[in-house]
Every structure is written in C-alpha cells, then in structure tokens.
Design a protein that fits this description.
49% of the residues lie in helices and 23% in strands. It has a four-stranded mixed sheet. A four-stranded mixed sheet has the order 5-6-8-7, covered by helices on one side. The protein is flat. The protein is α/β, with parallel strands linked by helices. The chain contains six helices and eight strands, in the order E-E-H-E-E-H-E-H-E-H-E-E-H-H. Strand 1 and strand 2 form a beta hairpin. Among the domains are: 64 residues, Translation initiation factor 3 (IF-3), N-terminal domain (Ubiquitin-like (UB roll)); 87 residues, 2-Layer Sandwich (Translation Initiation Factor IF3), CATH 3.30.110.
C-alpha cells in the first residue's frame, strides 16, 4: 500500500474540486476554455449538472459538466456486460478421424458452422490410431481444409499442433457471442414472419375458393337449364 494509504479511484466532483481554475468541457464535449472554478460550479448548477474532474493531472485540471449519477450507472452497466461476455465464452469440441468419409465430414463441418455462428470457439481434435500416428500430414491437411471451409465464420485462433496421439486446432468466431445472439434472434423473427405470411396467403386462397364454390355451382345449373331444348317450347 502506498505511504499515504488507500488511493481513491473516485473522481472529484463539485465542491471537492479545490483548484482555483479549471479547463472546462461542456456536456456535449465542446471546449469552453479555462474558467475560475467558482464560475464552472455556477454553470453546473444552472444546467442542473455536476462539475466532474476528469483529468486531474492537467494544468489546470480538466473538468466536464455531466450528470455524474448517470455516468456512474452507465459505466457499471458496461462493466457488468463485459464480465457477462467473458463468462459466456464457451469452447465446443469436435472430434474427427484423419480418414473421415465425405458424408461424416459434411456432418461434422455443419456442427462447427453452427457453433461459430453462435459465437462459440471450437476445438477440433484429430484422433490418430495405429499406423495413422505416422501420417500426421493427414490430420494437418484435414484441419487446413476445415479452416478454409469455414473461413467466412471463423479464424484459426490456435494453429494445428500435435498432442500425443491427437492433433488439435482451435477456431475462433468472427462475431462476438452477444452480436451472434442478436443475429440469431433477428433470423428467428424473420422466419416467423415468413411463416405467418405464408399461412395468411394459404388462408386467403382457401377463403377465396370457398366463396367461389357456390357461385360456380349456380352458374353450372343455369347453363344446363338453358341448354335444355324442351324449355324453349
């Protein structure tokens, strides 16, 4: 701990600012200039804002007019969101064999695509057995192919490396998890809207067919009656 004891990280505001003058910044970031501290405090009171010392090392210190309570709340929200994003980082795992067939490869690749779209990292493990352990280039080429196939969604965060009888590579998503969630929600809403529109069109067609049915029957009866030669007599 420093000789002077605990150093507060709180910004000095209003009457706690003891210097004779400050370099004042307005609430929208505009530069007001160097003014006496008393005048800056008066401007803050008139605007129903706080005078906050944002750069105490300046000569004179830089102060800004702002709503300090709102400022602290927004900073706390940002910090909470950052912590939540950090704890939500998930590493999925996908295991492949070096001689995987085309169908299984496409299935595995589909899972990797889904994970990356969701904003998750993916650990790809190539498992070697028997004589396959003497052909590491097979695993390397497979990992390289997979990375190229999903390059639009992710990037190689950790290059392929041998780990005992396995070879491992980590793919990272281009999008953050929070952004991926927004995109997924928008996609769901778009699909729901499409389904609703399709159902509405089908219902309209059924209603139109139902309404036209009796009219068509009446026309058919009228036409058959008019075609009867006995009626003319």
């Amino acid at each position: 701990m420093p000789p002077g004891g605990h150093i507060s990280t709180e910004l000095r505001i209003n009457d706690r600012i003891r210097v004779p003058e400050v370099r004042l910044v307005g609430p929208n970031g505009e530069t007001v200039g160097i003014v006496p501290t008393d005048q800056a405090l008066k401007l803050a009171q008139e605007a129903d804002l706080d005078l906050v010392e944002i750069a105490p090392q300046g000569k004179p210190p830089v102060c800004k007019l702002m709503d300090y309570g709102k400022f602290k709340y927004e900073n706390a929200q940002k910090a909470r969101e950052a912590r939540r994003n950090q704890t939500n980082v998930v590493i999925k795992e996908m295991k492949l064999r070096p001689k995987i067939d085309a169908h299984d490869y496409e299935t595995k690749k589909g899972h990797v695509v889904r994970f990356l779209r969701a904003g998750d990292k993916v650990k790809i493990t190539i498992m070697f057995r028997g004589r396959e352990q003497h052909r590491p280039e097979l695993g390397f080429r497979l990992l390289q192919r997979l990375a190229e196939d999903v390059t639009e969604l992710g990037f190689v965060e950790s290059a392929p490396k041998q780990d005992g009888r396995n070879m491992i590579m980590v793919l990272g998503p281009h999008k953050k998890k929070a952004d991926a969630r927004v995109d997924q929600q928008a996609e769901k809403e778009a699909k729901a809207a499409e389904r609703a529109a399709a159902m509405a069109d089908e219902q309209a067609e059924r209603d139109a067919a139902h309404a036209a049915g009796p009219v068509a029957k009446k026309k058919e009866r009228g036409r058959s009656e008019n075609l009867d030669p006995e009626i003319e007599a």
